[in-house]
């Protein structure tokens, strides 16, 4: 079936619109699109989206993470193997994290990372044929916000929810941060790490995030005020 | 994420109802009822699997079928095989080399056309899991009675009186036949007529898929 931008698409549909743009200039095909000999075909079910000038992708529902280069992820260290740590990022195989890819790490000064630690890292190499590699430093050798996450609480959610809460237009985090202080790290692999002052606040934060998955922006705002008032009512 | 579908055209299938993401822990799941027939499918993957089962060029697909009684029978293994081959044509396995994809089907209620229901439910679960696919697929069952009349999506009473039952699976691109599963005796003409009628009726199933996907696409956006 022929589809255009903004439509709900299913695998096997094709887009002549993208193919026409492709004849004139370069087109970037994102997830859910695939070039075949006779045109551009959809491979995932969702909404076909476009960002000017010529980037196209399909916004689909997904829970399983497929590693992609440059994304920030939350992983759990599962094994120490000589020079590298094996980190579970939720993909089909574990990612490798060199002990030298931490800020200020040298051969003599090894970072203190043990099995079970939660790390916030960036995907450096991600290809379907290779083991993914993650790093905890940026290209200047600085750690920025990356590194081992101390304490806190990690939970899983769908990949859509991560994209939703990280979207600048989503009011969730802006509403919540005014209510009580907390720290949050969202990995594109569907894991969220949160840390608040009390257990009660942590639970409230977690529930607020998970509850916002199917809500509209206005509903999210009212939910946040609601949760905050319940929280305040019990503490005082 | 629920929807129902009734149509008023010539090709009548029993009403379909579906809920996607029925199971919380699996990567993709769907429960589908076609009339009183109900199947539940869970999809997990791409996962890490044993070295011996890995294929360096494509994903290894595994289909597990559990009947209501829980004991696997030979007929069930045959169904697994049919469904696995149908899925293999649809899934772009080359995008996930050295991984495994597990499809688990649970029989809930069988009131005729169960294989078709399983296949349609599997397709919905695969869509929900977000696996890359070449095309979607839709299965339509039909029964041929003693007089040679073709009944689409037969109910148990019609199945009991049927001389032959057939299940056809079509892809969404050109509606070409992906898989055919027949039981009983029938003439060549009856087969080709049944094939054409099922092919036309498969559009209803594809419309239903689109309906389901559009219902949840607007919510997650």
From TrEMBL, chain A:
The keyword Acyltransferase does not apply. Its main location: cytoplasm. Pfam families: KH_6 (PF15985), Rrp40_N (PF18311), RRP40_S1 (PF21262). It comes from the Eukaryota. Residues 27-64 form the Exosome complex exonuclease Rrp40 N-terminal domain. InterPro entries: Exosome_RNA_bind1/RRP40/RRP4, KH_dom_type_1, KH_dom_type_1_sf, NA-bd_OB-fold, RRP40_KH-I, Rrp40_N_euk, Rrp40_S1. The keyword Glycoprotein does not apply. Keywords: Cytoplasm, Exosome, Nucleus, RNA-binding, rRNA processing. GO terms for biological process: CUT catabolic process; exonucleolytic trimming to generate mature 3'-end of 5.8S rRNA from tricistronic rRNA transcript (SSU-rRNA, 5.8S rRNA, LSU-rRNA); nuclear polyadenylation-dependent rRNA catabolic process; poly(A)-dependent snoRNA 3'-end processing; regulation of gene expression; TRAMP-dependent tRNA surveillance pathway; U4 snRNA 3'-end processing. Residues 152-198 form the K Homology domain. It is found in: Cytoplasm; Nucleus, Nucleolus. One of its GO terms (molecular function) is RNA binding. GO terms for cellular component: cytoplasmic exosome (RNase complex); nuclear exosome (RNase complex); nucleolus. Belongs to the RRP40 family. This is Exosome complex component RRP40.
TrEMBL record, chain B:
One of its GO terms (cellular component) is cytoplasmic exosome (RNase complex). InterPro entries: ExoRNase_PH_dom1 (IPR001247), ExoRNase_PH_dom2_sf (IPR036345), PNPase/RNase_PH_dom_sf (IPR027408), Ribosomal_Su5_D2-typ_SF (IPR020568), RNase_PH (IPR050080). Pfam families: RNase_PH. GO terms for molecular function: RNA binding. Residues 13-131 form the Exoribonuclease phosphorolytic domain. CDD domains: RNase_PH_RRP46 (cd11372). Belongs to the RNase PH family. This is Exoribonuclease phosphorolytic domain-containing protein. The lineage of its organism: Eukaryota, Metazoa, Ecdysozoa, Arthropoda, Hexapoda.
């Amino acid at each position: 079936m022929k589809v255009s931008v903004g439509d709900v698409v299913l695998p096997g549909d094709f887009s002549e619109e993208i193919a026409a743009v492709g004849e004139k200039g370069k087109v970037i095909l994102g997830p859910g699109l695939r070039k075949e000999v006779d045109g551009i075909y959809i491979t995932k079910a969702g909404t076909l989206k476009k960002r000017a000038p010529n980037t196209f992708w399909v916004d689909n529902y997904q829970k399983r993470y497929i590693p992609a280069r440059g994304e920030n992820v939350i992983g759990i260290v599962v094994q120490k193997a000589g020079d590298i740590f094996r980190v579970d990022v939720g993909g089909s195989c574990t990612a490798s994290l060199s002990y030298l890819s931490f800020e200020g790490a040298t051969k003599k000064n090894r970072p203190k990372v043990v099995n079970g630690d939660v790390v916030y890292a960036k995907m450096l190499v991600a290809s379907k044929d290779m083991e993914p590699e993650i790093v905890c430093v940026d290209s200047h050798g600085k750690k920025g916000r990356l590194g081992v996450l101390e304490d806190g609480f990690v939970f899983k959610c769908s990949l859509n929810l991560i994209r939703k809460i990280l979207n600048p237009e989503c009011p969730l985090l802006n509403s919540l941060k005014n209510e009580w202080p907390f720290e949050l790290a969202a990995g594109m692999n569907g894991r969220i790490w949160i840390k608040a002052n009390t257990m009660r606040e942590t639970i409230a934060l977690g529930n607020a995030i998970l509850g916002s998955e199917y809500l509209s922006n206005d509903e999210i705002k009212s939910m946040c005020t609601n949760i905050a008032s319940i929280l305040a009512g019990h503490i005082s | 994420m629920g929807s129902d579908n009734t149509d008023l055209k010539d090709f009548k299938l029993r009403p379909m109802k579906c809920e996607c993401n029925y199971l919380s822990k699996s990567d993709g799941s769907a429960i589908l009822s076609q009339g009183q027939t109900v199947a539940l499918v869970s999809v997990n993957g791409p996962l890490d699997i044993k070295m011996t089962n890995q294929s360096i060029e494509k994903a290894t697909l595994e289909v597990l079928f559990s009947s209501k009684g829980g004991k696997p029978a030979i007929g069930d293994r045959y169904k697994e095989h049919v469904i696995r081959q149908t899925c293999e044509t649809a899934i772009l396995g080359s995008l996930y080399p050295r991984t495994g994809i597990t499809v688990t089907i649970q029989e809930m209620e069988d009131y005729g056309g169960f294989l078709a229901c399983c296949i349609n439910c599997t397709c919905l679960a695969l869509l929900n899991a977000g696996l890359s696919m070449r095309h979607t697929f839709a299965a339509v069952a039909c029964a041929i009675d003693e007089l040679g009349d073709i009944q689409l999506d037969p109910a148990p009473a019609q199945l009991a009186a049927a001389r032959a039952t057939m299940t056809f699976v079509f892809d969404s691109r050109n509606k070409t036949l992906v898989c055919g599963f027949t039981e009983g005796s029938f003439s060549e003409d009856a087969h080709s007529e049944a094939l054409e009628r099922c092919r036309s009726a498969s559009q209803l199933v594809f419309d239903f898929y689109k309906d389901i996907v559009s219902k949840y696409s607007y919510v997650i956006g």
